[in-house]
Design goal:
Blueprint: H1 3-10, E1 27-31, E2 34-37, E3 42-45, H2 48-51, H3 60-72, H4 84-96, E4 101-107, H5 110-127, E5 134-138, H6 147-152, H7 156-159, E6 168-172, H8 181-193, E7 196-201, E8 205-206, E9 212-213, H9 216-228, E10 232-236, E11 260-263, E12 275-280, H10 281-285, H11 306-319, H12 322-342, E13 348-354, E14 357-362, H13 371-382, E15 385-386, E16 393-396, H14 404-417
Parallel strand pairs: 3-15, 5-6, 5-7, 7-10, 10-11
Antiparallel strand pairs: 1-2, 2-3, 4-12, 8-9, 11-12, 13-14, 14-16
The structure holds pyridoxal-5'-phosphate.
């Protein structure tokens, strides 16, 4: 029996309508920017497996670090215990995060990083004796699939059946200009008329919305208004973190740092599910007291798993290396050159680049998971390029180690799809 047939027997895949979906492609091997399927066909991983394997698959430096850790300490409860990989990771992360970030809480994935961030914000106000029950979030944001994270997400394809069970959220548009006066007025009204606890946002780039960019100065002003009302700013950098926007974190483009940050995906360089939620000393201090109930009673069994931490430490060593920083610049320059070449094509409505992110919108209207998307996906895969178009957006977010030749192959696949749409 083929892997596909065995898969079909018991496995329920994510984001999949099993009645109509094509069978999944069985991947047997990965190295650097490449994936191989069971028939030996090679694909360039043009989105670094959802922006996780940013330093390349099966990276030797990561393998060495995790293998060594696996022989030392595999797992221990993180309530009442600690260990070197967790402590070292906290030290190394704090060294590159905005300086107001002082405390780090471990979770299992991006959704639970956001979930913990929301709970922290709600309890922060509760512990201070204030009843704050409303969250502010951007339209079209994506923050994950657990209930709190889903509540702040604004992409209705995921949310339909659950909407009536959501937390209380008011939504605002993303700032498109440096002076978002109307938006600021709307935010001010929301802040005046609700008991707002936190503002959850993807800084500068909304990934799942189709790599939509928004204005940094405009965002800055929204954050300032929120801070003025003691509304905690929660930056969801699960996608944008670790160099993808051209800086280590997208929040570095702003003068106003977040109160809480959520990190996952590339955190563990594509080898383990782990996330962290970091916060300021001020947030942490609101949980101190003589009564146990003032503490943050939230835990995941695999919190701070030593193997995941060792992968993250090795990942940070790579991120801050000259080689990876140079690769980031090289890919950005290649993206810009490609953008220039393709933006006048009649089928292309707009092109944008930031760091490792390249995105283009096709000049057509289409459903997020419609026929055009399927056609494009098949076209790319046939050419040995793995990309996941979203609606009319085609985006590339390759691993740092993608070679120039591999980039050209990705660009070629994108260019050659245009006559088809
Ligand atoms: C992927 C993503 C999440 C959810 O992360 P999971 O690990 O899939 O739970 C949350 N926020 C953003 C911005 C993401 O891109």
């Amino acid at each position: 029996m083929s892997l596909q047939q065995r898969d079909k027997k018991h496995i329920w895949h994510p984001l999949t309508q099993h009645q109509t979906a094509a069978p999944p492609i069985a991947i047997v091997k990965a190295k650097g920017a490449l994936l191989w399927d069971e028939d030996g066909k090679e694909y360039i991983d043009g989105i670094a497996s959802w922006y996780t394997a940013m330093y390349g698959h099966c990276n030797d430096h990561i393998i060495t670090s995790v293998s060594k850790q696996l022989k030392e300490l595999d797992q221990v409860v993180f309530t009442g215990f600690t260990h070197e990989p967790a402590v070292q990771l906290s030290e190394r992360l704090m060294a590159i995060l905005p300086p107001n970030q002082q405390k780090l809480f471990f979770n299992d994935n991006g959704s639970t990083a956001v979930e913990a961030g929301i709970k922290m914000a709600l309890q922060y106000h509760y512990n201070k004796g204030a009843k704050r029950d409303t969250l502010i979030a951007f339209e079209e944001g994506f923050h994950g699939d657990t209930f709190g994270a889903m509540s702040v997400s604004g992409l209705s394809v995921y949310n339909g059946p659950f909407e009536e069970f959501f937390l209380k959220v008011v939504r605002i548009a993303t700032p498109t200009t440096e002076q978002p006066d109307a938006l600021l007025a709307q935010l001010e009204e929301i802040l005046e008329n609700n008991n707002c606890a936190a503002f959850v946002y993807e800084p500068l780039v909304q990934g799942a919305a189709g790599m939509k960019f928004h204005n940094a100065m405009g965002l800055e002003q929204l954050l300032k208004r929120c801070k003025h009302h003691d509304v905690l700013c929660i930056a969801d950098e699960v996608m944008t973190g670790f160099g993808k926007t051209g800086r280590n974190f997208a929040s570095e483009y702003l003068d106003t740092p977040p109160d809480i940050m959520c990190l996952s995906k590339a955190l563990t360089a594509g080898v383990a599910a782990m996330s962290v939620t970091t916060c300021t000393q001020q947030v942490f201090d609101a949980f101190l007291g003589e009564t146990i109930s003032k503490g943050f009673f939230h835990a995941h069994t695999y919190s701070a798993n030593p193997l995941a931490c060792s992968a993250a430490i090795a990942g940070l060593e790579l991120l801050t290396s000259n080689a990876i920083q140079d690769d980031g610049e090289r890919i950005y320059q290649k993206h810009c050159a490609f953008a220039k070449r393709i933006k006048k094509h009649p089928k292309v409505a707009s092109v944008r680049t930031m760091g490792l992110i390249f995105a283009l919108d096709l000049a057509l209207e289409t459903d997020r998971y419609g026929a055009v998307r399927d056609l494009l996906f098949a076209h790319f895969m046939e050419r040995g390029v793995f990309l996941r178009p979203l609606g009319n957006t085609i985006y590339i977010l390759p691993p740092f180690v993608t070679t120039d030749q591999q980039l050209e192959q990705i660009y070629g696949a994108v260019e050659s799809c245009l006559p088809l749409v």
